[in-house]
Write a structure and sequence with these properties.
By secondary structure, this protein is mainly alpha-helical. It has one domain (about 15-220): Alpha-Beta Complex (Aminoglycoside 3'-phosphotransferase, Chain: A, domain 2), CATH 3.90.1200. About 45% of the residues lie in helices and about 5% in strands. Strands 1-4 form a two-stranded antiparallel ribbon. Helix 3 crosses helix 9, helix 5 (about 75-80) crosses helix 11 (about 215-220) and helix 9 runs antiparallel to helix 10 (about 185-200). The longest helix has 19 residues, at about 155-175. The protein is globular, with a radius of gyration of 18 Å. The termini are far apart. The relative contact order is 0.21. It comes from Micromonospora vulcania.
Length: about 230
C-alpha cells in the first residue's frame, strides 16, 4: 500500500470555488481499467423507493416526511428504476464525495477516501454531493446550471439521479441506527429533507405526479423482495 502525507484541512463552504475546481477535474478524468462500473457498484443502494413500495410502508414514510404526501410511491419507484441508464459512463467516480472526503492544501483540493471508486457519468459525484451543500445554504440549482460538468448535461438524467438519491436518503434514514454510527440516520434525514425541498422547487411535477406508471415499470417496481422499513 502507498500512502501520502497531506498538509491541509477539510474545506468548508467558504472554500467552494477550489472544491468545485477539483470536482470538475475529477469528472473529466477517465476511469482507469479494472474499476467496477458505477451501475454495478451501487446496484443495491439506489433501490430506496422500490424497497418502500415492496414493503408497503408508504404510510409510515409520509408520516415521517409530510412533504411526500402528494407524491406517488409507484411513480417515484418507476423513475428510480431508470437510474442505471442515467448514470452510466466512463469517467472516474469517487462514489461518496463530500467536503469531509477532501483536503485543502497549498496546491488546491485533494480528494481522499476511495473505497467506492468506479466508472460512470462524470457529473454523478457532483449531483450526489448537492444535498450536503444545500444543507449549508448553497444555491445548488444555480451551481448545477453553471458548473461545467452539469450545465449541458441532460436535465432528465440529472433529475433521475436526484430522485434516486432522495429514495436512498429517505429509506436509509428510517432504518434503525447502526451501533457504530448512531448519528448517521440524522445526517441522512437532513440530506433527505434538503433534497426533497430542492426537488419540490426544481421538479414539483415529480412530487405531485399521481399517474400510474407503465405496466413494464410497475412490474419492475414490485419484482423486488419486500424490505421492512420502520419510522422512528
Amino acid at each position: 500500500m502507498l500512502f501520502e502525507h497531506l498538509d491541509g484541512r477539510i474545506p468548508d463552504i467558504a472554500d467552494l470555488d477550489p472544491v468545485m475546481t477539483a470536482v470538475a477535474a475529477l469528472g473529466e478524468t477517465p476511469g482507469p481499467p479494472g474499476l467496477p462500473r458505477l451501475v454495478d457498484e451501487f446496484a443495491e443502494d439506489f433501490t430506496g423507493w422500490r424497497d418502500i413500495a415492496g414493503a408497503a410502508s408508504w404510510t409510515a414514510v409520509t408520516a415521517a416526511y409530510p412533504e411526500l404526501a402528494g407524491a406517488s410511491i409507484d411513480v417515484l419507484a418507476a423513475r428510480e428504476e431508470r437510474w442505471t441508464d442515467a448514470a452510466d459512463g466512463t469517467a472516474l467516480v469517487h462514489g461518496d464525495l463530500r467536503l469531509d472526503n477532501m483536503i485543502l492544501g497549498a496546491d488546491g483540493v485533494r480528494i481522499v477516501d476511495w473505497p467506492n471508486a468506479c466508472t460512470g457519468a462524470g457529473w454523478f459525484d457532483l449531483v450526489l454531493m448537492t444535498p450536503s451543500l444545500a444543507m449549508h445554504g448553497v444555491d445548488v440549482e444555480q451551481l448545477l446550471n453553471e458548473h461545467p460538468l452539469t450545465r449541458d448535461a441532460d436535465r432528465e438524467d440529472l433529475d433521475t439521479i436526484l430522485v434516486a438519491g432522495a429514495g436512498y436518503f429517505v429509506s436509509r434514514s428510517l432504518l434503525p441506527p447502526p451501533p457504530a454510527a448512531p448519528a448517521v440516520r440524522d445526517f441522512q434525514r437532513a440530506q433527505a429533507k434538503a433534497l426533497l425541498a430542492w426537488l419540490a422547487s426544481r421538479r414539483p411535477d415529480i412530487l405531485t405526479d399521481q399517474t400510474s406508471p407503465s405496466p413494464e415499470a410497475a412490474r419492475a417496481v414490485f419484482r423486488r423482495e419486500p424490505t421492512h422499513l420502520t419510522a422512528h
